Amino acid sequence: MQKPLFLLILLFVLSGFTPPDNGRATWVVMQGSSLTVNGSTNINTFQCVIPNYSMPDTISLVRGGQKGVTLPMNGKLNLSVEAFDCHNKMMTSDLRKTLKAKTYPVLTVRFVSVNGFPDLKNPVKITGIVDIGLAGVTKRFEINYLFTSEERQQIQLKGDQLIHFSDFNLTPPSKLGGVIKAKDELKVEFILHLKPLN
Question: What is the pTM of this model?
Answer without folding.
Answer: 0.80
